[in-house]
Amino acid sequence: xxxxxxxxxxxxxxxxxxxxxxxxxxxxxxxxxxxxxxxxxxxxxxxxxxxxxxxxxxxxxxxxxxxxxxxxxxxxxxxxxxxxxxxxxxxxxxxxxxxxxxxxxxxxxxxxxxxxxxxxxxxxxxxxxxxxxxxxxxxxxxxxxxxxxxxxxxxxxxxxxxxxxxxxxxxxxxxxxxxxxxxxxxxxxxxxxxxxxxxxxxxxxxxxxxxxxxxxxxxxxxxxxxxxxxxxxxxxxxxxxxxxxxxxxxxxxxxxxxxxxxxxxxxxxxxxxxxxxxxxxxxxxxxxxxxxxxxxxxxxxxxxxxxxxxxxxxxxxxxxxxxxxxxxxxxxxxxxxxxxxxxxxxxxxxxxxxxxxxxxxxxxxxxxxxxxxxxxxxxxxxxxxxxxxxxxxxxxxxxxxxxxxxxxxxxxxxxxxxxxxxxxxxxxxxxxxxxxxxxxxxxxxxxxxxx
Length: 451
Ligand code: GAP
Description:
Layout: H1 9-19, E1 23-25, E2 37-39, H2 41-60, E3 65-68, H3 76-82, H4 84-87, E4 89-94, E5 101-103, E6 126-129, E7 133-135, E8 145-147, H5 153-158, H6 160-167, E9 173-182, E10 197-207, H7 212-229, E11 237-241, E12 253-261, E13 264-275, H8 277-286, E14 292-294, E15 299-301, E16 304-311, H9 312-323, E17 324-330, E18 337-343, E19 354-358, H10 365-378, E20 383-385, H11 391-401, E21 405-409, H12 411-416, E22 418-423, E23 429-433, H13 437-447
Parallel strand pairs: 3-9, 19-20, 19-21
Antiparallel strand pairs: 1-2, 4-5, 4-6, 7-8, 9-10, 10-16, 11-12, 12-13, 13-16, 14-15, 17-18, 21-22, 22-23
Helix pairs in contact: 2-9, 3-8
Bound molecules: glycyl-adenosine-5'-phosphate (GAP).
């Protein structure tokens, strides 16, 4: 009995995140700081797994993409050339009655304040630049003003020449980057979906000018398939091509991968055809030649760009929301159903891959369990050791945080060398030789399919 779209589903997920250490409100002990979140012990593993999965599919598992880690604070002229200083703004309106501030394009009714209900109380829309400003060095004046990057992409464009000159790459090739970005969003919300500080996973794919359509189609499909590969149900995902009036002036196409959250279909990432806008702008702004000379065809051109730009926090939230299920399990003792909460994470996304339990805290079981846990860690599996409480409750605690398998060490382990492997999704238990447990679990990771 999955309760996927119950109205309070998001609330239950947010509550689980806090209770079990995925995500906490930032500055909690000071009463919290609105729209800022901290990732707890399980959340940080989830997020690292998301980033690893992205990096493996984008960089490690391919020959045509290299990585980069550029600075958050960059030369202010970067933002002049990129267009962010002049144009990276949202239109906002204030309600004169309640002083609420809203994004103009988010208003369902342009007359009525969604906060206090006042009619005709909005100010005229005003442009609000989304970049956070600060000062580099001790002097706080215009000459020392710098910005926190609002996207990781520009650090890639400004390093195009460095990478070409140092790394033996030639179009078509990509540069990938994961890192924090900052936007002073007027209306953040929906948990970690829209925050002011967030992480992006962006890749700029540099191509000959006539290959835009081919690579655009390719990257839309690749990125859609990535979410499915890591367990997201395809019927909850869709591709949405932007209408012409949604496109940036330099862009000739953008398609979002969207997920159906409890609050509606929303963007996970955008795949954009950016033409040669970025390298042209930075070439003009810096006075450097950012064209590429193709030795084979003896032609010189400014590469065009196709960009898949994803949000790490949104991806982590998608995996969480999509994995969340509540099922009714008949309880023979009470004759009623118990509700089992389970996160059906893909094993590569799950914060913990294997929980290791001694059945009881005696007869040498904890020592043997620790040995087995260490052996599993040696082959790269993320383990969690727990020796407290009834075994059934320990299994349920792991279901709730999405651990795919639990290994229990009991009396038989000590006599016949076998352990119990309990599967999160089927709740089936099997005896496996302790000597083969690492290989057995590795195989289960490889064979896992969403049920
Ligand atoms: N370089 C292109 C670019 O930054 P974007 O659509 O503005 O494009 C890319 O951002 C992705 O970054 C979004 O699809 C989303 O996943 C994530 N993102 C953007 N703003 C965000 C915010 N305020 N909070 C969380 N994630 C955000």
